[in-house]
Write a structure and sequence with these properties.
single chain; 316 residues; alpha+beta; Ribosomal Protein S5, domain 2; Alpha-Beta Plaits; 2 domains; seven-stranded mixed β-sheet; four-stranded antiparallel β-sheet; binds adenosine-5'-diphosphate
């Protein structure tokens, strides 16, 4: 266990969920961007809150533990932890909330991985995912693990089942990730409410062929198979109407050599996977040019899949 009052530093990475055909089940962690957090154990005392949240960024997120996703995740963890300790958490969000790259998951996952480290690693990764999903419930109203799982495990993860929880980490070949975040707001609730509740059998067959193909492609390091399988015939045709220039952007990125990609989370960010850094940079240039041409402010990232997930360093 880390001595009481000693701060640790935490790096909690962004994640891409809804990996094209893998809606709600496939996601991966990236190296950049990431949130910075600091945490320490404090003794529990009467009239002192068990969890104190200090935001050191410009986003003005709630500091009440039950309203901040990090706090909600820690409250769940505290129910199963030694009763004599509480936590103080400082959060510096470098992942903009609502961007679609797992801003809420980074805080929830970072908090529970940090807490577990402080307590001497008494919980399993599945326990931590279970606690962190309480944060996602605060952010979006539902417990889901498609961002939390890769944030905690690192790499690419498959959430085969939530109840009971079954997460499978998948190997992947070297992949470069280009992300563009157009500065518009897509509310997760809107992105969910426009989805159709029924699926045609022919579409379902195509989709599960693609999911199986994508998983096989990742496991066999078969870039062509990965590229062919990065196709979503169910969610993307409906959701992409919320993102200006989506179809044209995707076409241009694929012409530039990207293997494929799609909407990150529930948008508005879009991600593309590439085999080399040069292609990923070309894809970035295409994204910038397209959004510049329609006058839409945006941020881009060129990064790689992050095999580690949340990382801890002890502070001197
Ligand atoms: P993303 O896909 O980028 O995580 P979400 O819309 O799922 O975006 O989550 C962001 C929502 O969660 C916002 O409404 C935000 O106010 C709320 N929230 C509460 N606490 C946090 C936190 N610590 N980090 C990020 N978002 C938080």
């Amino acid at each position: 266990m880390v001595p009481i009052h000693q701060w640790i530093k935490i790096k909690a990475p962004a994640t891409v969920a809804n990996m094209v055909c893998g809606f709600d089940i496939l996601g991966f962690a990236v190296c950049d961007p990431y949130d910075e957090m600091e945490m320490r154990l404090v003794p529990r005392a009467e009239n002192v809150p068990a969890i104190t949240i200090i935001n050191i960024d410009e986003y003005n997120l709630p500091t009440q533990p039950e309203k901040n996703v990090a706090g909600a995740a820690l409250l769940a963890l505290l129910e199963e932890s030694p009763k004599e300790f509480g936590f103080e958490v400082k959060i510096n969000k470098l992942i903009k909330p609502g961007s679609g790259v797992g801003s809420s998951a980074a805080s929830s996952a970072g908090a529970v991985v940090g807490a577990n480290y402080l307590l001497g690693n008494i919980f399993s990764k599945d326990d931590l995912v279970r606690f962190a999903m309480n944060g996602e419930k605060v952010a979006s109203g539902v417990k889901h693990a498609d961002n939390i799982a890769p944030c905690i495990h690192g790499g690419v993860t498959l959430v085969r089942s939530i109840f009971p929880l079954e997460i499978i980490t998948l190997p992947s070949p070297q992949l470069y990730v280009t992300i563009v975040h157009p500065q518009i707001e897509v509310r997760t609730s809107d992105a969910r409410s426009i989805l159709r509740q029924q699926v045609l059998l022919k579409d379902a067959i195509k989709q599960w062929g693609n999911i199986a193909g994508l998983v096989a492609g990742l496991m066999k390091s078969d870039y062509d198979l990965i590229g062919r399988s990065l196709e979503d015939v169910i969610i993307e045709p409906v959701r992409s109407i919320l993102i200006p220039g989506f179809d044209e952007l995707k076409k241009q990125c694929k012409e530039a050599g990207a293997l494929g990609g799609g909407i990150s989370g529930s948008g508005p960010s879009i991600f593309m996977l590439s085999k080399t850094k040069d292609i990923a940079l070309l894809v970035q240039a295409k994204m910038k040019a397209l959004y510049d041409s329609i006058g839409l402010p945006h941020h881009t990232y060129v990064t790689t899949i992050n095999p580690a997930g949340v990382e801890i360093e002890t502070k001197n």
